[in-house]
## 1
Amino acid sequence: MTPFYLFAAIAVGASLLVIAQRNPVYSVLLLIASFGALSGLYVLLDAPFVAVIQIIVYAGAIMVLFLFVVMLLNAPHEETPYDEQVHPLMRPGPMRLGAVLALGLVVELIWALEKGAESGRFAGGAVSNVGAIGRLLFTEYAFAFEVTSILIIVAMVGAVVLARREGAR
Amino acid sequence: MIDQVLIPLLKIVIVLNATLVAVTYMVLLERKVIAWAQSRLGPMRVGPYGVLQPIADAIKLMIKEDITPVRADKWVFTAAPIISMVPALIVYAVIPFGPTVSLFGRKVSLYITDINVGLLYIVSVASVGVYGIILAGYSSNSKYPLLASLRASAQLISYEVAVTLTLVSVILMAGSLSMVEIVNAQYNQHVWFVFAQPFAFVLVLIGGLAETNRAPFDLPEAEQELTGGFHTEYSGMRFALFFLAEYANMIVVSSVVTTLFLGGWLPPFPNVGALHLLYYVPSWTWFLIKSFLFLYLFIWIRATLPRYRYDQLMRLGWKVLIPLAILNLVVTGIVKVMLM
Amino acid sequence: MLSAYIPIAMFVAVATGFAIFTIVFSNLLHPHKYNKVKLEPYECGIEPATDARDRYSIRYYLVAMLFVIFDVETVFMFPWAVIFNKLALFGLIEMMVFIFILVVGYYYAWQKGALEWV
């Protein structure tokens, strides 16, 4: 069980540092470290496919995008002069929405953990084996798989529209 | 204990050292071959025909002054070469240099480990390698490295899409993600995948050149526009680590292409009975010969082809390689169903 | 199966250790004679006037975005390819529909000039 605690400690510690960091580039790096530890946890759960996907998609692709955005905005600090002057509790309502959402997430997580304790067990070999995942995905969940492609095309259109140039075709 | 820890550790140390030696001599080979291509002699001073040049280079890099520019982000600046090099090395963990053989009365497999997601592991490790380049450019806080690292990372991720898509059609042939199983599949199907998937082979080869920032895709290091590329500010050992990572990546690409398309450790015509005497040559020799051919090809291409322009490079990646990869995948799927 | 991953963890440790060791070891050997000019960022001899970290082209952002999207798509194809022999024609049709929708999106991006660099 020692490797579990090692990976868990890295994941939790890095995640905490992500929000404690002032420099957004460091935050991104720590988030990558957290994802790496998470992928280690997946390996311990005998789910190597999920582990490599975690690295390829999250650490290898989404975080590159994050890093590009952080570098694109060129923000050395997250705080604006306004943030430094006004106490967090004195800010207007919309700025505190994040706290409400975070609270909602915590409640949701606790609820999910309570509820999932008996039903959320892994389906044994279905997770450890890539073929088994494929069999489930492409027979039982075939419709969900096809619908995913619609989701992806929406994302693609969104990306193109967001990044289009003024006066482009 | 011995099988679990000691033998893997021994293999890791051997592979690590072999890679370091291979990289240093790869540099010498490159200088020599390019020199010959240009009717020069190349390094001749250190040792006969310059064979000791790599050792001299290594010592020089060791004792060179290592500078951290004042405006640089010190910790990230040091971490970047490490982040660049570690992924380049740990890919070797799943590359099979040979099958399981018996050595001193003990069954020893000529690979460090065989996991059932081997090929995806390589893809994932390679995708992490990008950070070394981005962070080097960012932390240097200097204009040339920043521009070069942006170019390099955009190039890397563009070609990663094409290469990964192409790899799917190889998996379609092999039916497994394990590197050892892929080689076995080539034995069982009586064909090296280079003959079954010639398009995929060419696509992966071009993508591999681009992913290792080699000529004709070496824009991140285009001296005329960007001086030294993303490692302009680096010197001494930290520069050496980047250099090491780059050449180690070249060897990785050669090894992966050998495994996926040229039957890995298998001798030529592995199923032809008359040529069975080829099995008397140790399996890893075949692997090394095939990989060496690709390394030579890399150098040859560098000595021959001029550099691409950046918009041409992106167009090739997004508008040529990706459609071809998708087409190849579709055709492979249809042909496979028809043959069933 | 877990034992197959132990060598990978060991390799990561050995490789990282080696990298750190070489940097520290060379730090003991090499000279440390610094001066102000030597520590300036390299700009062909001209004194740097502005900070290097500036805003840059949105193209890079778009490339990264498209990369994420394609990456997610490819991830679905790997388990499909592994069990293709069992799925046979049904699997082929399934993936054709998926790829067709993907190609529509790709065609849209192409037409909008998102794949154009200049």
## 2
Amino acid sequence: MPPLLSIRDLRTWFPIRRGLLARTVGYVRAVDGISLDVAERETLGLVGESGCGKTTLARTVLRLDPARSGEVFFEGRDLLRLSGRDLNCARRRLQIVFQDPFASLNPRLTVMDLLTEGLLHHGLIRRRQKAEAAAALLNDVGLSPDALHRYPHEFSGGQRQRLSVARALSLRPRLVICDEAVSALDVSVQAQVLNLLLELRERHGLAYLFISHDLSVVRHLSHRVAVMYLGRIVELGRASDVIERPRHPYTRALVSAIPRVGCDGRSRIVLQGDVPSPANPPPGCVFHPRCPCAVPRCSQTTPPLEPLADEPDSGRLVACLRAAEI
Amino acid sequence: MTLLRIDDLTVTFQGDEGLVTAVERVSLDIAPGEALGLVGESGCGKTVTALSILCLVPRPPGRIVSGRIWFHGRDLLSLPLAELRAIRGRAISMIFQEPMTALSPLQRIGRQLAETLLLHRPLSRSEARRCAMDWLRRVGIPDPPAAMQSYPFQLSGGMRQRVMIAMALMLDPELLIADEPTTALDVTIQAQIFDLIRARRRSDTALLLITHDLGVVWEMCSRVAVMYAGEIVETAPAADLFRQPLHPYTAALLASLPALVPPGARLRPIPGQVPSPLAYPAGCRFRERCPLAFERCAEHPPLRQAAQRLARCWLVNEDPETTP
């Protein structure tokens, strides 16, 4: 079966303009040659630190940011080459939940209008069916129908995030992109929303592209995990493999950097320095200036994302020249 | 021995919708050299507690209704401003969550550091600059002379936080207050910052670490105080608290962490929401969300002592010797 979403060698570069004539003097390579698949009903976690390009990747897939090159196949059609009615139609099946539930809900619309805006736009319901449709969605995300005539500001952060999820689900999507969807919430509320996402996944057979910087949340929800660094994927594989037995030096440092109850920090790999600028990425492996395992050839050759020789059937891909020896 | 004692602190804020009690009757001790974690979810009053120590609560709208904060036999809350300034930054220093708002955007880093030194130490300008440069090196800034000449916006978030740490530690404070020092930073940078605080803090410098991240507390702190809805609900040695939380809120908080259950399993969130600070319910403030609530919870529980621990719950048996 072909994957639901298939990203092929995607690049999103933002021009840097200078001077009076706003000449392009360079590019910020936010997404720089990424290939990924998400299968039906699969949750793919996408992790990485701020500025690594996770959000740009999501926005490019949704055509909210322009791609420079590459392909994004969704249900067999290349989203980057669709326009007008076809794009509109494809977007129905591909929804997003944003990080900040305070910024992503229109404060002037009632909950009923918020939840049914998409349905009306796509002509899926008539105006007189709004209340009924919205009440069903509220029920789906565990909110009471009393909410219908209230405005977003009357809800707490966790409840607003439930509203964002309900809105995303209103068009019966097959893939929902969650961009740091639980990151702004306190842990006790975060757990409520994570449970909701798990329930909805089972009930509606959803696939998620779950973007987060929080590895424990990603591990909890994802079947497979992709690790991004400076616009590229450095490791991709089953969640248990990538997070419990990471092979790329960056994934190792990332996993070991998280303070966890019950683990001591003595085995921590503390990376030196900061993430370089994506406007001027280092040559060769983009991670080599901070990598504790780097050797001279790492600054000359860009490592391909490829299977490991010692576990060819795990489905894991690692972009490291020294993956086999370290 | 106690370095700092917060005694019965109550702080209110006059908001648009009414009077908010941000912190209510909080008492807390910090011993010399101790690392105390103050944890809780957003809005529980942990930052206001920390700001009160240095009298940094904006007044108005804030008002310190009651309480004393004892430091070397003096109440910081009733100290004249001049004496308070002599303590701020020297005996007690603070690191904030967002270094960009804590550093002046208009002055070069070197000048800001040197000024802090000159304010508290009898140094010449060049000695102060040398000392500042030395500290920038000690906090791991790659090119200290260049950093001295930089403005805060020219540095990354991690580098700015290093500057804050240098500024906070260079006068050898007796107490370092760190309010979510790494929340705005990535995990690999967070690891660097905690590594640095651990390595550069003198053994007799106490640390008050305010965080919402229980993993951070586990790693950095020897004792923990948990806040909920403006009150302290539990204090305990860190290892004991994580092994066996006494207050149902602490237990529920630990149970809601995804790292502590198998992947894909249902988490156990705390039902309901934190009560509004405009109208805290009578009785135990956690009662409506508590799986163990019973009749007596309608009465407000005091902090009850069990061994080295305190918990604001009627179910805590005050004398541990008689527990079955």
